[in-house]
Task: structure prediction
Amino acid sequence: MQGLTIVDHPLVQHKLTLLRDRNSSTNLFRSVVREIATLLCYEVTRDLPTEFIGVETPIATARAPTIAGKKLVVAPVLRAGLAMAEGMLDLVPSARVAHIGLYRDPITLQAVEYYFKAPEDVADRRVIVVDPMLATGHTAIAALDLLKEAGVTDLRFVCLLASRPGAEAVRAAHPDVPVWAAAMDPELNDHGYIVPGLGDAGDRTFGTR
Ligand code: URA
Result:
């Protein structure tokens, strides 16, 4: 699918299988979500621009690259995106964080906003939205809508698991936003859960069910 990158690295795939296992503990689930997010962060930041600066090594003066251009914001969709945000911040600790509170109405499966707090200069930054499950796509589309309303033009979306219909919906609604996932599953069940999926990512991360 155009604009969708599946990160098929063996480490990512192995760790995703741990998440799919219904017998994985809450502790393991949360730490593996964080680890995969770090690995996905490595991929999603692959094209960040760099510039050369002068640096004094213990031996000599060198010209060496540093990250240049827009600063990053990590934007977790609450609450399931929080562990992913931690994994991204492990790699880019200077990134700012925008919290996006959206819940899925259990009947309509539509996304309902209840919280939005972003850095004041978010419009000048590159924003990486993180949400582990791209299921119907409603939440992802709403999160991207909110950030665009706040003036953001440089957006990326990162999830652990996408459904094919969800990924198609997000790409259709926001064709300018590239999407990264560790895997894509074929379908959703009647409750909007990804099949085979890994269950409810929020509940499994926080041990609430
Ligand atoms: N949210 C989840 O946590 N899991 C799914 O399968 C779909 C949405």
